[in-house]
Amino acid sequence: MDSTSPVPQRLSGKRAVVIGGSMTGLVTARVLSDHFEEVTLIERDVLGDELTTARKGVPQGRHLHILLARGEQILSQLFPGFVPGLVQEGAELLDFGRDLAWFFYGSWLVRTDDSLPMICVSRPLLEAHVRRRVFATRGVRKLDGHEVSGLRTTPDRQRVTGVTVQRPGDPSSAEALEADLVVEASGRGSRLPTWLEGLGYPRPEETSIEIDLGYATRLYRQPSPSPYPWKALYVQDATPSRRQGVITPVEGGRWIVTLAGILGEHPPRDPQGFLDFAKSLQHDELYRAVSSAEPLSDIEVYRFPAHLRRHYERLPRFPEGLVVAGDASTSFSPTFGQGMSAACLTAMALDQALVAQRQRRGPGNLTGLPRHYHSAAAKATLQPWLLASGEDFRFPEVKGQRPLSFTMMRWFVKHLLRAARTDAVVYKRFMRITHLLSPVEELLDPRVLVRVMRAPDVSSTGEPFASTLKKTG
Ligand SMILES: Cc1cc2nc3c(=O)[nH]c(=O)nc-3n(C[C@H](O)[C@H](O)[C@H](O)COP(=O)(O)OP(=O)(O)OC[C@H]3O[C@@H](n4cnc5c(N)ncnc54)[C@H](O)[C@@H]3O)c2cc1C
User: Fold this and answer.
1) What residue's CA is closest to ligand 1, atom 46?
2) Is residue 238 part of a domain?
3) Ligand 1 pocket, residue 124 CB under 6 Å
């Protein structure tokens, strides 16, 4: 909906407030604009119109961000012309199967045509683009340079009625902002568990899977013309190595190069250490590319301690008028590129929950919404959670409750990846699942199982894209 669209007739309430103006807050605000007359998005950072560099509240913005195909689909649905608009601003549109050379656990995966769109853009530019679209939406208002310092409730504390906002660190500027619905989207550092406790509610149970992941990222000038057959490169070591590295293009004719290692095996910040880490990967393609490219930035590092899931869906008591979205609820290891797409999935879950709520209770009555929404959001983020944590569980040092079928799953994944080295159909199915377009169960399709089981045990370790491009049909 843009500023010329009519005001929606079927409303859930007068005003919604969103805490946090990063990807979750933005996408959620856009969705809420279909259900509320007014949506106020409160962000601690100042969000200038021209802001296209990483900001304090989103330090991960300096690192490579992959947008999965499901996230792209939802963003294109919410913001028509999303992909062409980004390309106009400098993003490069690649194809995951055709343009990404992927060295996965000891072999290149097959190269396919017509796979899934891969939008290569820096995180700050992506966020800036979405932000412009959201604030051009009728009814959405920004309150930046302000932070939420607490929740306001009815005297019996059964219902949240708004928030207290202030300028950062200045309690004397505090004022009340009333709302029919408050969405907590302030990220992994969310203070909601503490706020709930202060109101006499239990804190949510947490599942934390410690992985001690380290990232190091540097920008380079893209060589032109490129001497490489690929446009993006991903080298993901097989165990026992804990390392990986990725190159993708971003706007401005640059490469963003991110190296990562889990269980304390962190890539260093100094230039020689960065190159040495790249050289240690199980294929030397990434090192060769990076060592001959011109660096354009310092090396930025980031530490990510653990996958974290706060189980709001399990709470026996929770106030009305309040819901939680995005990293504030589930924060995945970034190496799986799922966070922004999961934020899109929970925004769509909220959209559907609001529609169902009106059908159940009529317009303007939000009683019971948190329970229905939190249950739907937990379901929507279960697949990405299981995919990411399941993959990290391959390291015995990663502690946590493995699913009962874990050994069988690992055996299957090993065979699946072996087939994806040569079979474009299997590769594409695998991609659709990791990109959250299809449920994992689709791999149990007998036609896929037969291909997986019959795949030859071969690996390709030479030059990337040495084999011919395969059609997926
Ligand atoms: C190193 C790294 C790499 C990543 N790579 C990828 C990737 O490749 N693909 C992908 O999809 N995801 C990736 N992610 C995850 C992705 O960045 C997040 O999932 C995404 O930003 C959505 O998070 P969010 O909006 O819920 O929270 P955040 O991005 O953490 O934003 C929270 C916002 O709330 C604001 N805020 C906080 N407290 C308050 C308050 N009290 N009042 C007002 N405002 C407040 C902050 O300033 C911030 O703007 C990566 C994450 C990391 C750490």
Assistant:
1) 57
2) no
3) no
Q: Are 38 and 138 in contact (CB under 8 A)?
A: no
- Provide the mean pLDDT of the chain: 94
| 177 pocket-lining for ligand 1 (C-beta < 6 Å) | no
Taking alpha carbons only, the member of 210, 181, 147, 186 closest to residue 23 is 186
Q: What is the CATH number of the domain that holds 44?
A: 3.50.50.60
Q: Residue 215 is inside which H or E element, if any?
A: strand 205-221
Confirm whether 356 is domain-assigned.
yes
Which residue CA neighbors atom 42 of ligand 1 most closely?
147
Radius of gyration from C-alpha coordinates of the chain: 23
State the residue range of the domain holding 164. 13-80+125-207+307-387
**Encoding tokens for residue 64?**
């490579």
Whether 444 is covered by a domain: the verdict is: no
In this predicted model, what pLDDT tens digit does every residue of 149-184 receive, in sequence order? 999 999 999 999 999 999 999 999 999 999 999 999
3-state secondary structure 340-393: HHHHHHHHHHHHHHHHHHHHHHCCCCCCCHHHHHHHHHHHHCHHHHHHHHHHHC
Give DSSP secondary structure letters for 147-191: EEEEEEE-TTSSBEEEEEEEETTEEEEEEEEE-SEEEE---TT--
Q: Which of 183, 184, 180, 146 is nearest to 43 (CA)?
A: 146
What is this model's ipTM?
0.99
